[in-house]
Prior knowledge:
Chain A is an alpha/beta fold and 490 residues long. The first copy, chain A, is built from 16 helices and 14 strands.
Amino acid sequence: MASSLISRQFALSLKKNLHLSAPGCKAAPKTQVEFDYDGPSMKTSVPGPRSEELTKQLGHIQNVGAINFFCNYEESRGNYLVDVDGNRMLDIYTQISSIPIGYNHPDLLKLMSNPNNLSTLVNRPALGILPPENFPEKLTESLVSVAPSGMTRVQTMSCGSCSNENAYKAMFIWYRNKERGHNAPSEEDLTSCIINQSPGCPELSILSFMGGFHGRTMGCLATTHSKAIHKLDVPSFDWPIAPFPRLQYPLEEFTRENAQEEVEDLIVKWRQKGKPVAGVVIEPIQAEGGDNHASSDFFRGLRDIARKHGCAFHVDEVQTGGGTTGKMWAHEHWGMEDPADIVSFSKKLLTGGYYHKDEFQADEPYRIFNTWMGDPSKNLILSEVLNVIRRENLLEEVTRSGKALMNGLFELQAQYPGMLSRARGVGTFCAIDICDDETRKRILITARDKGILLGGCGDRSIRFRPALVFKEYHVHLFLNIFNDILAQLK
Amino acid sequence: MASSLISRQFALSLKKNLHLSAPGCKAAPKTQVEFDYDGPSMKTSVPGPRSEELTKQLGHIQNVGAINFFCNYEESRGNYLVDVDGNRMLDIYTQISSIPIGYNHPDLLKLMSNPNNLSTLVNRPALGILPPENFPEKLTESLVSVAPSGMTRVQTMSCGSCSNENAYKAMFIWYRNKERGHNAPSEEDLTSCIINQSPGCPELSILSFMGGFHGRTMGCLATTHSKAIHKLDVPSFDWPIAPFPRLQYPLEEFTRENAQEEVEDLIVKWRQKGKPVAGVVIEPIQAEGGDNHASSDFFRGLRDIARKHGCAFHVDEVQTGGGTTGKMWAHEHWGMEDPADIVSFSKKLLTGGYYHKDEFQADEPYRIFNTWMGDPSKNLILSEVLNVIRRENLLEEVTRSGKALMNGLFELQAQYPGMLSRARGVGTFCAIDICDDETRKRILITARDKGILLGGCGDRSIRFRPALVFKEYHVHLFLNIFNDILAQLK
C-alpha cells in the first residue's frame, strides 16, 4: 500500500510535469505536502533475511563489512528509511548526515520528473570549460544565495574529500604567491615541481586538530586524526597537529587558552622547521571524532592567530553545514563578520565544493581543475532543497526540534547517570556519551531492532543526525522508544 | 526547430514511460534511433556574444580562464555540441573525453524519464553502509559485465582522482599487510599513524612515469608529471619517476629496453632509500601528457618487473577506458591474461572507481570508505550506455572509424609535412603533432570557428576524442574541413 501511494505520487508528478513541459509555462506554486509515515514498523530483526541474501551477493564484488542493511528507497519517505525486508525505521543518521530534507520529498520528485531537466541528467558537462547556459543562474540561486559572510565566490567539486583537497591547494597557491610577491614562478619552480621537488613543490603544511576528520584522500588524510583505521598504512606529511579543546558538560571553557597558545607555538615551530603553515583547517564541531564542541571565543581567537601569522583559515563544514545546527553554517554561531577565508561543504549540500574570498581564487586557469568540477544535476536538486528549506521554515523547525531533543537528552542523562553523560548539541546536531563502547553497541543494535536508526562517533558517543524535516513530534517519538531501550538495558 | 524535435523526443519518452510505469510492465524492446545533425552550422565566431555575456556573469563567482563557451545541452545531440549562440559543432573532444555515446541519446532520455528511476535520482545513499536493493544487480550488469581479465571485484568512487587515490591506498594497505605477514597491526602502528608518523604511516612510494597524468588531489598529483601548472606550489612526496618510452612514428621500439631497466633500477634504489615501491601506476596511452604510446612488449615487461619486485601494478584507464580504443579497455591490446592488479576508470564510465584482484580488497571495513562511495544514478546510466554499446556494435564502429581517421591523418601528414607529424592512435583514440604550439593554437581556434571542436595535449599535439557514435562519415566530414583549415594556414 505504501508502494501504491508512491506510484500515485510519481503519476501525479508526471501529470503535473506534462503541463510544466509546455513551452513558456511556469511551475505551479508549490504546496507543502506532508509526506511521512506515522511511526516505525518492524517486521524482522535487522538485517533481515533479504538483506542477508543481498549482502552475500554484494560480497562477491566488494567488501561488505560496513553494510548495515539494504534499503528500499522507493518506499522510504520523510524521516523514515524502509529496508528490503519491509522494516520501517525512524532515520536519525540520514546516510551519514547527507540527506537534507528526508526521503522522496514530493518537491524533489516533481523536479526530477520535469522533462525540462532530462538533458541535465544525461549530458554531464566538463563544467570548467563548457558549462551549461543556466550554470551561473543555478549557482546564484543555490550556493551563492547561502554564501558565508564575506564570500562571494564558490567552486563546486564532486565530493567532500575533493573539496578539501582543492581548498588546501588554493591555500598553498595563495601562500606561495604571497612569498613570490605575486611575481611569475621562476624557471626553477617550474622544472622542480614536475619531479615533486622544492621549490616548485614547496615544504608547506596545513595545521589540523587532534580528533579532526577532513576526508580520506592523501592530502585530507594528513589532516584527519579521528581513528587509526582511517590512516593506517597510508604515507603522510609531517604537518603540525594541535589539541582540540575537550570541554566539560555543562559547558566550561578552561581549556580554551591553552589550546590557542599551542596552536601559535606550532605555527612558529613549523616555520622554524622550514615547513611553514599555509593554512589552518578545523571543523566547527568535530563530528566523526566524537562531536567535540569548542566555544565561539576559541574559534574567534583561532581566526585571529591565523590572520596574525599569515595563515589561511579554512572552516570545514562538510558535516556541520546545510542547516542542521539551526543556521545554514555552524560558524554563523560564532557571530563573526570575517569567520574564514575558505569554507568547504558536501553531504547535505548534495554537491561538494568550497567558498573562498576573492584572494583565494587561483591566479591561473587549470590550477584548480578536473574533468567534471561538480555536477549540474546536483546543483539542480540543491536549489530546490534550498527553496524547500525557506518555504517550510526548516531552520526554525531544526532549532525547535533541537531544543526538544536536548531537553530530552538532559532528562535521560539525569535518569540514567551510570549509562549516559555529556549530552551536547546545537540545533539537532546533538550527541551523548555512553559509559563504554560495548554498551553503545548494544544500544545502537537494540534501537535499530525497535525502528530507530542511530550512528556512533568518537570512541563512545552516539551522534544524532536527523534530516531538517525532523519535527518536535519525531523527537518525542524517539525519546519514548529510547527511554524504553535504556530501561531495558539498565 | 531543433528544439521542437527535442521536445517531441521528450514527449515520446514520457508517453512510453507512462506505460513502463504500469506495475509489472516490462520495457518495450529498444530500437536503434539515429539521432544526430547532418553537419556543423556556425552563426557567430566562438565564443559568441551570449557566451561572452555568461562568462562575464560566471566571472563574479569563479575563475573563468578555462571557459571555452557556454553550451545548450538541450539542443545538442549525437556528435554535435550546440552553444548558446546557436553554433553547432562536430565534437571531437567530448567534454575531455567523458561523453560515451554522444549527447541526448534517445535511450538515455527514455531511461531518465522513467518514473521507476526517480527515487534513484532524489535519494542518494551512503553506498558503503546502506545500499539500494538493486545495487548488486546494477553493478553486475554494468561494471562487472566489462571487468578486466582476472578481476571480479570493483569499488565505485565519485571521480577519477578519488578512484586513483583509493587505488593507491589499496596498494599501500596490501603491501603493508604482506610486510606484517598478515598479522594485526602493532600498538605502535596504531598510535603513530594518528599523528602521521611511521611505522603507522609508512614511507612507501608509488612509481610513476614522466609525462603521466593521474589526477590532481595530493596523492594523485605526486604521480602526475605532465604539466608544471598542475603541480606548482603543492607539497608532494619523494617518489620515483621513470622515463616513458618516446617512440618514433612509424613505430620503432628501440627505447623499450632502456625504459624497463630504469624502472627496475628505481625500484631497487627507492627500496635502499627506505621508501619501497608499493605500486607502479601507468596509463596504457599517456593522454594529457601528449598521447604517448608504448609497445605491448613494454607493458608486458613492466608487468613482469612489478611482479618480480613484489610491487602492485595499477593501470589507469580513466581516459583510455570505455571503448574509445576499439576495446573496452586499452590494456586488452596487450593480449595478457594477467594485465594488472588494479584498473581504475572514470569519464566515459560515468562513475569513477577501480577494479582489483581479490587480494587487494582491504582486510577491514572503513579502510576504503567515504560517505557516498559513488552514485547509483551514474551506475544506472552506465548500464544503459553499455547496452547501447552492445546493441549498436559501437566497438566495431570505433575500430572502423579509427582506421578511417588514421588513414586520413597519414594522408594529411604526407600533404603538410612542415605542419603535421607523428600521427598515431588506436581506435579513435588518435593524435597528431603540430610544428609548434603557436600553430596548434591557430588550428584549434580556426577549427572551432568552422564547427570542429578539438583539444590539445602535451606541448604540441592535438588529440582526437570523439564519442563512440562517431561514424566513418563523421571522420570524412572532419577530414574535409580539417584539410581546408590546413590549406588556409599553410
